[in-house]
Write a structure and sequence with these properties.
The complex is a heterodimer of chains A (197) and B (315). Chain A contains nine helices and no strands. Chain A is an all-alpha fold and 197 residues long. In chain A, helix 2 packs antiparallel against helix 3 and helix 7 crosses helix 8. The longest helix of chain A is centred in the N-terminal third of the chain and has 23 residues. Chain A is globular. Chain B folds into three domains: 93 residues, no CATH class; 58 residues; 125 residues. Chain B is built from six helices and nine strands. In chain B, strands 1, 2, 3, 4, 5, 6, 7, 8 and 9 form a nine-stranded antiparallel sheet that branches. In chain B, a hairpin with a 6-residue loop joins strand 2 and strand 3. Chain B is 42% helix and 18% strand. Classes of the chains: A mainly alpha (197), B alpha+beta (315). At the A-B interface, helix 1, helix 2, helix 3, helix 4 and helix 5 of A face helix 1, helix 2 and helix 3 of B.
Chain lengths: 197, 315
């Protein structure tokens, strides 16, 4: 697996190299990782939790965990970015369940503070920006019902059975939609995935 | 499936999605779905895990507050004891998939996991530096306090010395005043006694006048007051000239057994004299003032200056 270059980052250091340096207690490396992924993680946590303050806390927790336990990262299981995203998602879902919020908004209008969208131009990695555009485009290509099951699983932390109950469709239908969506995305995002491997 | 994918891939996909709920936050990375584990299924699991990891990139990124980054860096650059003091978070409950997966890392040979060694901890040095700075600051502060205290003590000492000197001077003045007052009181008592004697009804008064026609000091005068007890007496003299060099005035009481010396004295020009005593020789009938060369003379040898006349009672 080749390290992913991040041309727009000042050092153009790969994610894995930055993580390794962070594990070696180099704050600058953690800061670089933060600059690279905090906007995405914050958007993810805010999407799940619906509040900016909680989302900021989740992002803090993720990077503190990276600092303290980054040595447990296993590159065979995922890329660094996926590892960070799944960490943030898990933390946010846990927080959401602890908070016992049944209903949450999916709209940023529900945030308790207006989020400052989009990192300043030039700061965000070109690679990440391209990745973002590609994912948006391909997600937009998904049929709404397929997109819905993915979002309910990923952002709401619902199991397939819970999705079926909530969407009032058979479990088999949920699984089929999920499979179709995942396979389409894998095919459409193969270049992106390849970069991550 | 309708697109011809194998059921094995379907299981892997569904397991990957289900693994999100089972512990995707595992510190070692997402759980790998899909028993049985083969190289192909592992690859598929990894592929779909990465697909899931791409989903949030559809979201509009949110720039974190600048203070959030600063807070994070402050927290990690604080006491690095976080890494050791804070217990490692418990591993998430294994999922159905992960239970079937070996607990060991999935790193292929020749590609070790990130960073298995850590640089020597720097927090002891940082802590020592902070403590040293704190000690230095404390020492400086204590030195300042000590200097200030010393200045205060020195000022107090000066004040005390000054006060002591002032009190000592005041005390000396008070003593002088008391002495003067005592002397004044004594003088007053003496004057009062003399006045009482002079004004008592039974006092005998005798005038002293220059003796003979060729008197040496014709302007000299004197009055002798003798109490009724014939012991207390007061002699008031006026007009006596200062005694010549080498001579002195002597007072004599003339008794039946002869003249008895009652002491010698000097005179200042223009100033009256008062002599007094609580004793007088018995059977004194007169008094006399002579000018003697020997103050210790037991009998009059010098010229007679004044002599008393007949005594009489004023009452």
């Amino acid at each position: 697996m080749n390290p992913i270059p991040t041309p727009s980052s000042p050092e153009s250091i790969s994610d894995q190299a930055l993580l390794r340096q962070a594990v070696e207690r180099q704050p600058d490396a953690l800061g670089a990782l933060y600059n690279r992924y905090a906007p995405t993680l914050l958007a993810l946590a805010a999407r799940i939790l619906g509040t900016r303050a909680d989302a900021e806390e989740v992002v803090q927790e993720v990077f503190l965990r990276v600092w303290d336990h980054g040595g447990r990262y296993d590159p065979a299981r995922s890329s660094v970015s996926t590892w960070l995203i799944l960490l943030a998602r898990s933390r946010a879902i846990d927080r959401l369940r602890t908070r016992k919020v049944v209903e949450r908004t999916h709209e940023t209008a529900g945030l308790d503070a207006p989020p400052e969208h989009a990192s300043p131009e030039g700061v965000e990695s070109v690679l990440i920006r391209e990745r973002r555009e590609r994912v948006r485009r391909e997600m937009g290509e998904l049929p709404p019902e397929q997109r819905q099951v993915l979002e309910m699983a990923f952002y709401e932390g619902l199991s397939q059975s819970e999705i079926a109950a909530k969407a009032e469709v058979p479990l088999g239908t949920v699984k089929t939609r999920t499979l179709l969506a995942m396979k389409k995305l894998r095919a459409a995002l193969r270049d992106e995935v390849r970069q991550l491997l | 499936m309708s697109n011809g994918e194998t059921p094995s891939e379907d299981r892997t996909i569904l397991a990957a999605v289900e693994a999100l709920e089972a512990g995707a936050s595992s510190a070692g990375g997402p759980s790998s779905p899909g028993p049985p584990q083969t190289a192909e299924s592992e690859t598929l699991a990894r592929l779909y895990t990465e697909v899931l990891g791409l989903l949030p990139f559809e979201l509009e990124p949110i720039a974190p507050a600048p203070e959030s980054r600063a807070r994070l860096l402050a927290r990690i650059q604080g006491p690095e004891a976080r890494a050791t003091a804070e217990p490692a978070p418990a591993a998430p409950a294994p999922s159905r998939v992960s239970r079937e997966m070996p607990a060991a890392r999935l790193s292929p040979p020749g590609r070790p996991a990130v960073a298995t060694t850590r640089r020597p901890r720097r927090w002891p040095l940082a802590l020592a530096a902070v403590l040293a700075l704190a000690a230095l600051g404390l020492s400086g502060w204590l030195y300042q306090q000590l200097s200030r205290e010393r200045a205060v003590v020195a000022s107090l000492r000066r004040d005390v010395e000054s006060e002591r000197a002032r009190v000592a001077a005041a005390l000396a003045a008070a003593r002088d005043l008391r002495t003067a007052a005592g002397k004044g009181l004594a003088d007053r008592r003496d004057l009062e006694e003399k006045l009482a004697l002079m004004t008592s009804p039974a006092v005998q008064v005798s005038a002293l006048r220059p003796a003979g026609r060729s008197a040496l000091q014709p302007a000299a005068r004197g009055i002798l007051f003798v109490a009724a007890d014939h012991q207390h007496w007061v002699l008031s003299l006026h007009g006596l000239q200062p005694a010549p060099e080498g001579r002195t005035y002597k007072l004599w009481f003339m008794a039946k057994q002869g003249p008895v010396s009652s002491g010698d004295f000097t005179a200042r020009p223009g100033e009256p004299l008062e002599l007094s005593s609580q004793t007088m020789p018995d059977n004194t009938v007169a008094a006399m003032v002579t000018l003697e060369q020997d103050p210790a003379a037991s009998v009059p040898t010098g010229p007679e200056i004044l002599r008393s006349g007949k005594p009489y009672e004023t009452g």
